[in-house]
Design brief:
It contains 2 helices and no strands. It has one domain. The chain is elongated. It binds zinc ion (ZN).
């Protein structure tokens, strides 16, 4: 019984670490995409390229969607409590108290 609970705890930590990795990758994508988007808007003033427009749309959609995804990822895997934007690496859940590291 005790072993079972330990396993559950380990699984929650793993799940949370995985989510955190995905959320870091997604945030990095936004950080890299934003300057490209600005540059592409600058270029689109001079070059009327259809492909440039499609790339801009894709980048804009990603930049708008990613924060929504990270909101879902930055939740406690046990109780669903949202950690907020500034609590980057919580070691435990402030609501249910489960260990996350
Ligand atoms: Zn929790």
């Amino acid at each position: 019984m005790n072993n079972n609970e330990e396993n559950k705890g380990k699984k929650i930590i793993e799940k949370f670490q995985r989510r955190q990795t995905i959320s870091i990758i997604l945030t990095a994508i936004i950080v890299f995409l934003s300057p490209f988007l600005i540059i592409s808007f600058y270029f689109s003033k001079f070059y009327k390229l259809e492909i440039l427009k499609s790339i801009q749309v894709i980048m804009l959609v990603l930049i708008l969607i990613i924060p929504v995804i990270t909101v879902f990822l930055r939740r406690c895997p046990n109780c669903g409590h949202f950690f907020g934007r500034y609590n980057i690496a919580p070691t435990y859940c402030s609501k249910c108290g489960i260990k996350l590291k």
